[in-house]
Design goal:
alpha+beta; five-stranded antiparallel beta sheet; two-stranded antiparallel ribbon; 2 helices; disordered C terminus
Length: 112
């Protein structure tokens, strides 16, 4: 899909035209400013075409980007789980041992 010269609407900046595509970045010229956005994320959050739609090609690119992010997150989670299983402490991922209340019941929340 050719994105250059596509007329878009931004939630804050209003109407604009895509004037350039450089890798995963779009340059959009608005009446008062020129802004750079990450593609395709900008169409998920900020931009729509002037008719209010998002073309199916862009929606497909959004789905691919989401899947890549999911795979990266899944790999990070597996890596963290593996490290913790082998006694390696990952900052921010520490496991707080379960404490016993006065009545002997367990509590996973440690009071400070």
């Amino acid at each position: 899909m050719v994105l250059e010269n596509l007329c878009v609407i931004h939630k804050t900046f209003g109407n604009g035209v895509i004037t350039g595509v450089n890798g995963k970045y779009l340059t959009v010229k608005f009446s008062n400013a020129q802004k750079i956005f990450v593609y395709p994320d900008a169409f998920e959050k900020f931009l729509t075409c002037q008719d209010g739609s998002v073309p199916s090609d862009i929606l497909a690119d959004i789905a691919v980007a989401k899947e890549k992010k999911r795979q990266i997150e899944e790999a990070k989670t597996a890596e963290n789980r593996h490290a913790m299983d082998h006694g390696i402490v990952i900052p921010g991922k520490e496991i707080v041992p379960e404490s016993k209340d006065e009545d002997g019941s367990g509590s996973s929340v440690e009071e400070i």
